[in-house]
User: Fold Glutathione s-transferase from Entomortierella chlamydospora.
Amino acid sequence: MLHKFDSNSEAVFNKVSQRQDSTFKLLYFPIHGVAYASRLILATTGAKFESASPTNWVEQKATTPFGVLPVLYETVTTKEGDSEVQEVFEIPESEAIERYLARKFQLLGQTPWEEMKINAFVSSTKSLTFLAFSRIPTVKDTVQKQEMVQDMVNKSVPAWVQSHERYLVANGTNGHYIGDKLTLADIRALIVIELVLALTEDRVISQEKTPAIWKLWEGVRAIPSFVAWRNTDSYKQFDAGYQTFVKGLLPLKEQ
Amino acid sequence: MLHKFDSNSEAVFNKVSQRQDSTFKLLYFPIHGVAYASRLILATTGAKFESASPTNWVEQKATTPFGVLPVLYETVTTKEGDSEVQEVFEIPESEAIERYLARKFQLLGQTPWEEMKINAFVSSTKSLTFLAFSRIPTVKDTVQKQEMVQDMVNKSVPAWVQSHERYLVANGTNGHYIGDKLTLADIRALIVIELVLALTEDRVISQEKTPAIWKLWEGVRAIPSFVAWRNTDSYKQFDAGYQTFVKGLLPLKEQ
Assistant:
């Protein structure tokens, strides 16, 4: 049974939201885009998931809860007497999907303090992500765009690296922001670290220059289910688009 | 005692985070900006708060947890034996502040279902807010900028209005997204409704055209503590800047 976003499925949803054995389908365009963090959660936690793309977006658009993607479909199997029933839940909106998955997989901390800290690291990281993947690409004028890229690389990136390295060192350079646990802060940081490495190679982030950020990067990247995801055709397609996007930011390279 | 963001204050923070009698100081520039949602939470819930601005930002910048504003300072009074102790907590980053306050004041729902729905409405609303207050203002080229404003008014705004009116009607046109409770979804919607009214007067949102959105707007605006905040000098200063910003989007008016 499909429980649409606007259905009255609260009781069953509240029960199912705790389940750890769901399978997921994330419907989105074949790019990282605003689904990247959610896919990273699914990949790093070892969840069973597939990335699907709309076959006819113009028609499908009106059937989604807000006329936008991503939409997450979570499937769980429940028992009714002797028979098994499939319950499918529709969860729209990138930020809602990310928070729902992060909560489900215990990536938002276990105390108010941890949650506040995770949210602060995430918010700081998202500002830089948003600059790179939304504000800068919005600008068509090539002169302004290039100025913004330079400004990002010369100011926003070093500011992020400096403060986040400091907090990661303070936590023991163990590859995490909070204790020894994987959290949404680590996962969100991956997106920025990948971007910085693509834009500046080893000039800003490296094992020598930023050992704590580097430890996070290597640690999360080594999670077997994440390694496995990077070997899928879906990931390779998203990554090819990503590399093209980054090259578009990069007359930089000739500096 | 001031508990900085990087202090080891978890135990006392976890206790204090539940307190409903704190006083707050929100340090930010004298504009609505990315502090608007947090100030709206404080104003609509009747919290005791003041808006403060940096006196010398160039010097103060380095003393903040991430070199950016807003930063929230929460003060609670605790008893130690016969004497009272003031505990002050520093909470950085707009999104972390907003989530922390929303959690404290029960604006994120009481079940996983409510939280997922609130997050979805908030995420949808933030996309439009981000377009208007961040992506469009980023663009310097006046032709592109005006095209984006037109596109927002002709496409993004009607899409938001249509889907959100539908969900608010489905909840009974009672001025709320979830039950009969004020939530972060309502508060975030205010920001978009105010913008749409400023840009399009009664052409898109009105009591006749969108009764459910209108009910939310009037209902939240009538909360006495929010009315009181709109009469403060701080609010009036922020609002003056806001009106100037909106006018900058508005050759539209001549349509």
